[in-house]
Design goal:
Rossmann fold; globular; DUF6506; 5-stranded mixed sheet; alpha/beta; 5 strands; 102 residues
Length: 102
């Protein structure tokens, strides 16, 4: 069995069409994509589901609210996991919830 999974990370000025990598092993294909905010992440997550991604992992910049937005966006069709920091060092020591939740 081969798993197609994706990792979405948050970074200022990230563009998923440019800031990406694909890693393929005999058992796992991992798509890595950067986005600059929650709305881009929602759009990307929905696109990845249509492309056959079977699981999503979110970087530690996604807070509880951001993670919930992604889970809602994929309509529980695939599992969504997260890496956790209380204060992400790449986001000025804040959670994405502090920066992107309007």
């Amino acid at each position: 069995m081969s798993l197609k999974a994706a990792f979405i990370f948050l970074a200022p000025q990230a563009d998923p069409s440019q800031h990406q990598a694909d890693i393929q092993t005999p058992q796992v294909t991992l798509l890595i994509r950067g986005v600059q905010n929650y709305q881009e992440a929602v759009n990307l997550a929905q696109q990845l589901v249509t492309e056959g991604v079977q699981a999503l992992e979110l970087c530690a910049g996604f807070g509880n609210i951001g993670t919930a937005k992604i889970v809602e966006a994929v309509k529980h069709k695939i599992p969504v996991g997260t890496v956790r920091f209380d204060n992400h060092p790449g986001l000025s020591g804040k959670s994405g919830d502090d920066l992107f939740n309007n």
